[in-house]
Design goal:
The structure is a homodimer. The first copy, chain A, has two domains: 75-414, Na+/H+ antiporter like fold (Up-down Bundle); 422-570, Mannitol-specific EII, Chain A (3-Layer(aba) Sandwich). The first copy, chain A, has 23 helices and six strands. Chain A has helices at residues 11-37, 42-53, 58-61, 63-69, 75-97, 101-107, 109-132, 145-157, 161-170, 177-209, 214-246, 251-271, 275-287, 294-318, 328-352, 357-367, 372-383, 389-414, 440-455, 459-472, 528-541, 545-552, 557-570, and strands at residues 431-433, 476-477, 481-482, 485-488, 495-505, 515-524.
Chain lengths: 577, 577
């Protein structure tokens, strides 16, 4: 009389689904964090997690474990696939939310020029090359030449907006003229690149199914984009206030955003281009509304990048053997072409728009980062049989390598320095909770001892230099802070020791308060900038009384580092009603 | 050479998966919001969405549509099942996070007593009744009597912590003595209730599989709970700071929480009790750590209650025909017993602990809300074949009805009044943006006209009373606010009209500023409390300059309501580092 779904989960399948999800999420997040700490994009670690867990290493060595934890069929496999599908749809939503059309208009001609040459060059040269030497570029024998060549062209042209934004933030360039120019050019680039991708997808799908015609699909895709970015954008912008007025906040908006994205995704999937294209365009339309609050964006961003996206990237490497399918010729070819055409194209556009040589090279370097989106695209082409495993591996490697070197290249060209935070310069070993000393000189010796351990310098040399400096004028600051410091010839990079004294030690501060948070600051003699940078970082970090209070409540070095990490994260993304 | 998962999604299946998800999410959230606006629990609307979309109505009328959008098997069906599985696991995580063991210790004896009698009564009477008249209570012929009877007992005992918290907040009682007592008793109740549930589940599973023994499963379950709430809780508490110190925040913590919950869920599923039990206990262990920040809880809570949980509740009603399976005898029996044993049990415990008669009844009424958890439990029993569809429908109805009447019962007994917010008293029609008037009297007439439309009173009667009041002393407040008001005999409930004047109108405010936000306040002559309440609500709402600014930027009534909704939501859940 009554039935649930005919196929349902056995307890074993439930266990496997949960286990595979947790292993993929745990491993990818841990490796992602490791990469991030090494100054690399997190996606690198997330893909690596899949490579290690999958056929390339563990799965290849222990096929039995692979069959149990990541079965190729059955309910658990399909549920995991469904999760990965949702993950990539939501990832494209987040990518779309980051596109801000108004920034593009403000940047005007230069942004348009750079994005145009940054697309046309890679697209034409990539397509031409793939058409000329398809076998070297990894074409599958049964695939059609035109969609294959176009796919390679598109794969060369799409940039990686989130990676570029991250690199610019790290270099402290996001709000600079050149940073805004790169961001706007990358936005236009992505928008056009994804439309080109829709074309390739339509050709692929229809090539497979042999019915309908490409023209119709393209027309419908174009209509979708136009309607979504005009009427759709207008409707979303005018619907958001009434959702915010009449539903629990931010819950109502959150559900609304997801429903709109799923609808757009289902629509484009029906048209014949992939669901993720619709999700991206919907993201652009939604993100454009000034009614979408920062907190809503935050919740979506946090959940997608920490719960969904890592699992998707980990599943990518799971069933592919990256060693067997590593073809050095294809990898080098793809990588070299990708770098040359993108940097060259953007350089020409920037020069044309009247920028200096150095700025133009920097823009080319910045725009060359590919990152996650190329990989998403590659996976679809792989599944559709358009490309083989060797080209896919080459594309993954190209995407990762360009993302890794884009930042260092820009840094070198602009000779800008990476923005540091106090927390990055501290470890558990450089924090002293409750120092034993009760006066200034004792404390400086106690802190110098720690600094000596960290730098392998002589403790007396350090302490003497610092005490000498204190003799000129004491380094107490208002609010219970003090910054004893010295510049040492023997030092090669800055060294910081932080001490938290509950009782407080007199540092002759202007407000007469004893210092409770004391920062010993040692920098190289030939690097005056670092000293000023560190001093201002310290003062900035402990500017807020709440941060000082939270720091003093720490009972262990780790807890103090957590406070500093949170204080840093708290700087952005605050919500004003 | 290379294969993806053997079974994978066709474009049609991708479309169906996305469409079914979006239809379930959209419909359940809309009906959930409607219920919330009517002062009812959202879960009522979420289940109703499934009932309307599924076999009971639409699916019954158009079986074809049901087969296409919600197929019973295939990749889309399994992916949706996987999503619902994750949803219920995450829902139990959120429920567990709300259990605060320290609150329980502070309440001490009374809380323990109430929760004990609140469990023992329903458990014994429910079990005895089910054992005595199993057929009337809806036992399936092939099910074993003991697990069935125990299930009914447990189903009678578990409360609904989230529903109770919601009701107490609405009645402004959460932080009162009686509110904290009810919350603590409910927490202990839930903890014990879920352990009882684990017992029943173990008996069910083993009854099905006929191997191993119940004792072993129970022992392992008990060991899991003890380890998780002692060593596990300790480990989580001491791991959180180093995750917060060494990973991007709050992303690292978010992933950590999900991984721990998935691990606990997989573990309990392997032991032989359901995954959700592990998720609940993990939630208790994680939520207990003072290192878990409010913002992390917020992100989890928002995502789970707005993206995951509604889909789960909607799927519950999807494949069950609530009309065919509606057995009035079972429904009435279950509902009556559930109310009597729970209210009675808690009343006795409260009286025993020395509370007054009225307070004891109020506690019984508060504890009687069942809500979502009963339904989760019922679904598991249904799937295991322990109960039939009729009893399941009766349990769903019991859970919903008790949740709906618990608040009104408490309100009646305590004669407390529901906490109102300014926004609840406003609609688009009661807001005037840019009034035409340029002086005080004109404005009062313009606002009185709107008030007359809203209340069907005479415009002159309103305006005269307000102007008379202004003659005694003008009602301007500092910060550009003004509150002209009057009490009218003909009025039965308060009426508010809000006007935003960009130019400002002189209301003789103490700081000399013209009033830009003017609130006309009409209350009944025999209800002096309401006038004071509204005045203070108005002043509180517009206390912050940011809120005043945002309000004045509104171009439409809906935008103003959105600002008020957000200002209200912003009050709670702020993060201090």
């Amino acid at each position: 009389m009554w039935t649930l779904a005919a196929e349902t989960f056995t307890p074993q399948e439930i266990t496997i689904f949960l286990l595979s999800l947790l292993v993929l999420l745990g491993a990818s997040r841990i490796l992602g964090e490791v990469m991030r700490r090494w100054g690399q994009p997190a996606v690198l670690g997330e893909i690596l997690a899949g490579v290690i867990l999958g056929s390339t290493f563990l799965g290849g060595m222990f096929p039995q474990y692979m069959q149990v934890l990541f079965p190729a069929d059955g309910a658990a496999a399909l549920a995991l696939e469904g999760y990965a599908l949702l993950a990539v749809v939501l990832l494209l939503l987040v990518a779309g939310l980051e596109v801000d059309l108004s920034v593009v208009w403000r940047q005007g001609k230069a942004a348009i020029l750079i994005s145009m040459t940054g697309i046309i060059f890679p697209l034409t040269i990539g397509t031409a090359l793939a058409a000329a030497i398809p076998t070297w570029m990894g074409k599958e024998p049964q695939a059609d030449l035109l969609p294959f060549a176009l796919f390679v062209g598109v794969a060369m042209s799409i940039t990686a907006l989130p990676v570029i934004a991250r690199v610019l933030i790290d270099l402290n360039l996001l709000k600079s003229d050149i940073g805004m120019l790169i961001m706007s050019a990358a936005m236009v680039n992505d928008l056009l690149g994804w439309m080109g991708f829709a074309v390739v997808l339509a050709m692929m799908q229809l090539g497979v199914e042999q019915n309908g015609n490409v023209g119709m699909t393209l027309l419908m895709t174009l209509a979708f984009v136009v309607v979504m970015l005009s009427a759709g954008r207008w409707a979303i912008h005018h619907t958001l206030p009434s959702i915010q007025a009449h539903s629990a906040w931010p819950g109502g908006v959150l559900s609304f955003v997801i429903v709109v994205v799923l609808l757009a995704a289902a629509l484009t999937e029906t048209i014949g281009v992939h669901a993720i294209f619709g999700a991206f365009i919907a993201g652009v339309a939604i993100g454009d509304s000034s009614h979408l609050r920062q907190r809503t964006r935050d919740v979506i961003h946090q959940f997608v990048t920490n719960i969904f996206a890592p699992v998707f990237f980990a599943t990518i490497g799971l069933r592919i053997n990256f060693i067997d399918s590593f073809n050095p010729v294809t990898v080098l070819l793809v990588l070299a072409v990708a770098l040359v055409v993108k940097i060259g194209g953007c350089y020409l556009g920037a020069k044309w728009a009247g920028l200096s040589k150095r700025e133009s090279w920097a823009i080319g370097a910045g725009m060359s980062a590919r990152g996650a989106m190329e990989i998403v695209l590659g996976q679809l082409a792989l599944r559709a049989g358009l490309i083989g495993e060797e080209l896919f591996v080459a594309i993954v490697i190209m995407a990762l390598v360009t993302s890794m070197i884009s930042g260092p290249m820009m840094q070198k060209i602009l000779q800008s320095r990476q923005r540091r935070s106090l927390k990055d310069l501290l470890s558990e070993r450089s924090v002293i909770i409750n120092p034993k000393s009760e006066n200034l000189e004792d404390l400086i010796y106690e802190m110098s001892r720690r600094a000596a351990e960290l730098t392998n310098l002589n403790i007396n040399a350090i302490a003497l230099a610092v005490v000498d400096r204190e003799r000129i004028m004491h380094t107490g600051l208002p609010g219970g802070l003090a910054v004893p410091h010295a510049r040492l010839a023997a030092l090669t990079k800055p060294c910081i020791v932080l001490a938290l004294s509950k009782q407080g030690i007199d540092f002759d501060s202007p407000d007469g308060q004893p210092a409770r948070i004391v920062c010993l600051l040692l920098t190289a003699l030939d690097d005056p900038d670092s000293q000023i940078e560190m001093l201002s970082l310290f003062a900035q970090t402990f500017e807020r009384p709440a941060t000082r209070q939270a720091a003093l409540a720490a009972n262990k070095p780790t807890e103090l580092l957590a406070v500093l990490n949170l204080a840093q994260a708290g700087e952005g993304g605050t919500e004003n009603v």
